[in-house]
Write a structure and sequence with these properties.
homodimer; mainly alpha; 5% strand; binds iron/sulfur cluster; DNA-binding
Amino acid sequence: MLLSKSCVYGVQAAIYMASLPRNEYVSIQEIAGKLNISFHFLTKVLQNLTQAKLLMSYRGPNGGVALARQASDISLADVIEAIDGGDIFKECLFGLPGCGVADPCPAHENWTSMRSRLQHLCTSLTLEELGKRANQLNVRLANADAPMNPAMLLAVMNSKNKPVGTE
Amino acid sequence: MLLSKSCVYGVQAAIYMASLPRNEYVSIQEIAGKLNISFHFLTKVLQNLTQAKLLMSYRGPNGGVALARQASDISLADVIEAIDGGDIFKECLFGLPGCGVADPCPAHENWTSMRSRLQHLCTSLTLEELGKRANQLNVRLANADAPMNPAMLLAVMNSKNKPVGTE
DNA sequence: TTGTATTAAGAGTATTTTGTCTGAATAAAT
DNA sequence: ATTTATTCAGACAAAATACTCTTAATACAA
Ligand code: SF4
Ligand code: SF4
């Protein structure tokens, strides 16, 4: 797979946050519940995003995470790079280090053109755009094969969606 | 990484074989030596390719593996699918199972168009083409960071490149 | 001040991927 | 026949990745 699972989870969570009517602190429990991801694992993944200043976090009751910038100012590539590292768009199909036009392998040109298309796609897709689509279409973000456990269900039902700055 | 390491090794080996002047049995020792891959590991990888009828193998002295079809009749996609499975070109950026236009995620259209480009690239790149380029350009196939061990060096030096069908 | 809801940090476990090794089977060469 | 060079098959080990759990730190609420 191109992206690690951690990265997929992070992207899903980011889009979920961007799809909310307002930018507000959402508990990771709620996100994990909606997206059907392990809460503890998602917590660690989202820590990468807060450290990369893409999210801001707030501890204590009614805390959670929220987008640190405007959704229109965060690209899919930002999220991917924060979790999987910037090499995704630089490395090769064949994963060989230190290659380039000076010493290329036989697929170099085809691959680099492919890769730059991918990078362009990811940098031009903003969370705003993705969140909007997630709302407009009746769209699915997460893998829905496992049922929610009671704790998550509760967390989702109790989510108050309290806007940022109203506390 | 998009492709597993096994898959990368298999692709490299396939291109190496296609780059030879004639299609002939080459020992896996020689390939592993030239490409700087663990012999035993490459052996297992190439077994996938023989089982997929992309290679034919021959045991005993002067044995080895050779392309089972014309290099022009084997695509990069053939090799990739034989090792990593056919899902590579079907699965998603996000790796979610069973999704499609009926129940898409917000990035679906962008991704599927990307993915079909990739698939088209891989199915249209033949081993003949790649082998030819590997010869024309002074091209590198393998990761050259570790020195060869004596056994491999020997195997490479002793390679007789005996053509298929001359025994 | 005490209890509760939350993220932060990190140790620990499980699973998958990658790599190593050993012993067979096979066929050529001597 | 025996030795040698090779692939085949599969057990085993190591490393990377994915996931779980426990304990803190923080901040709100009663
Ligand atoms: S030369 Fe290009 S295609 Fe080949 S391994 Fe390097 S980056 Fe990839
Ligand atoms: S809907 Fe499309 S882009 Fe989204 S997860 Fe499925 S295949 Fe991927």
